[in-house]
């Protein structure tokens, strides 16, 4: 027998104009059984309202599978930085090496509103993933125009590759501009 929540999601028309209700449903799907989650999550992930899409993206963390990861990678290129930030946060729960190229691209292309948040969260995720690509991204970010992005790059590089940080600091031509 279906539970009322599943029945609501699979048999009732969704309140398309009520983004608060849709966002609540999307967030509540985190607690749904995997089979139900997989059947109903996609429209929420691609919803036109970023509040609904962000809630759905956050609910993916508990159910993260390869096809969900691919969707999160695609969202790292979204023109909406809030969706990028939500995707970064979800990937951060279970980072994999396959995430790094997309995280680096999101870092490099983030512009506009909340782009510094996207950029420093991308750095933190890259550091969690580790490896030469992460070290390269972090080292490059030491010269970022945003002070907090530079600070996060320095903190993460100190943990991941302190010799690279020391090498950067020893080269006066590579020091970040003072603002």
Structure notes:
66% of the residues lie in helices and 0% in strands. The chain has helices at 4-11, 19-28, 34-40, 42-45, 50-59, 66-75, 81-91, 100-109, 115-129, 132-141, 147-160, 162-170. The longest helix is centred in the C-terminal third of the chain and has 15 residues, at 115-129.
How is the topology of this model organized?
Elements: H1 4-11, H2 19-28, H3 34-40, H4 42-45, H5 50-59, H6 66-75, H7 81-91, H8 100-109, H9 115-129, H10 132-141, H11 147-160, H12 162-170
Helix pairs in contact: 2-5, 5-7, 6-7, 7-9, 8-9, 9-10, 9-11, 10-11, 11-12
Features:
single chain, 179 residues, mainly alpha, 12 helices, 0% strand, elongated
> H/E series, N to C?
HHHHHHHHHHHH
User: Low-confidence stretches at least 5 residues in length (pLDDT < 50)?
Assistant: none
Mean pLDDT: 90
**End-to-end Cα distance:** 63 Å
Sheet of most strands: none
Tell me the fraction of residues in β-strands, as a range: under 5%
């Amino acid at each position: 027998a279906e539970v009322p929540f599943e029945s609501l999601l699979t048999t009732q028309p969704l309140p398309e104009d009520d983004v608060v209700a849709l966002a609540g449903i999307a967030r509540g799907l985190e607690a749904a059984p995997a089979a139900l989650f997989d059947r109903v999550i996609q429209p929420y992930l691609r919803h036109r309202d970023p509040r609904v899409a962000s809630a759905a993206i956050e609910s993916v963390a508990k159910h993260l599978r390869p096809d969900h990861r691919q969707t999160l990678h695609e969202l790292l290129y979204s023109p909406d930085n809030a969706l990028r930030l939500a995707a970064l946060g979800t990937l951060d729960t279970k980072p994999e090496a396959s995430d790094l190229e997309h995280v680096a691209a999101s870092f490099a292309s983030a512009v506009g509103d909340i782009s510094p948040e996207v950029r420093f969260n991308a750095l933190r995720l890259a550091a969690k993933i580790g490896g030469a690509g992460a070290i390269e991204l972090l080292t490059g970010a030491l010269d970022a125009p945003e002070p907090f992005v530079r600070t996060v790059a320095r903190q993460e590089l100190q943990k991941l590759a302190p010799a690279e940080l020391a090498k950067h600091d020893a080269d006066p031509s590579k020091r970040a501009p003072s603002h």
